[in-house]
Write a structure and sequence with these properties.
single chain; mainly alpha; 68% helix; binds zinc ion
């Protein structure tokens, strides 16, 4: 994938996430219910597909994050992010926003952490 196409793809995903966050914050209850019914299955399927690619192999390494020269032990950063956002963050999503922002900056190029769109 060339660089421009990659940028277009990333922007489209960021914009989709922005739109969903905006809906969660501002939509009325009927609209929110409709969005939740259509988007939650898509989000869960997306997580499942991504996590399946990062399942550890028989040696306990992540095949997606490992290279020929460097093996990445499981759980890799994708699984760690999944646990933090889906399990740990799901229990208390607003208790530690500063820590959450720092992790977002490390893993997503600073766009969310800086608040620039
Ligand atoms: Zn991985």
């Amino acid at each position: 994938m060339d660089e421009i196409l990659g940028q277009v793809l990333r922007n489209a995903v960021w914009e989709r996430l922005d739109m969903l966050a905006e809906l969660a914050n501002r939509a009325d209850a009927p609209s929110l219910l409709s969005v939740a019914r259509s988007e939650l299955p898509r989000l869960t399927e997306g997580w499942r597909a991504m996590l399946a690619a990062h399942e550890p192999d028989e040696k306990g390494n992540c095949p997606a994050c490992s290279s020929r020269w460097r093996q990445q032990k499981a759980p890799c950063s994708v699984w760690q992010a999944a646990y933090e956002h889906l399990v740990a963050g799901g229990l208390a999503p607003t208790t530690q926003p500063a820590r959450h922002a720092n992790r977002t900056r490390v893993t997503h190029s600073g766009r969310l952490a800086t608040g620039t769109r």
